[in-house]
Amino acid sequence: MEPGFQAIVDCMLEAGWTRGEIMRSLKRLIAADNMTQKENAKVEAQIAIARAMMGLGRP
User: Fold this and answer.
1) pLDDT tens for residues 30-44?
2) How would you write 7-54 as a 3-class SS string?
3) How is residue 16 annotated by DSSP?
4) I need a labelling partner for 49 at 20 to 30 A (CA). Which of 17, 30, 40, 41 fits?
């Protein structure tokens, strides 16, 4: 994973980003991914509840 991460950072540096900008953007990406994972889990739970309430129980 380290080589891939370093390649991304190197590309961003070559494009003119500062290290501070890179770190801030990566932190935002991580936060967005965490939020997406939480929301996906909520939706999956809601779907499971709806299926159980409808008596389907199976996809």
Assistant:
1) 999 999 999 999 999
2) HHHHHHHHCCCCHHHHHHHHHHHHHHHHHHHHHHHHHHHHHHHHHHHH
3) T
4) 30
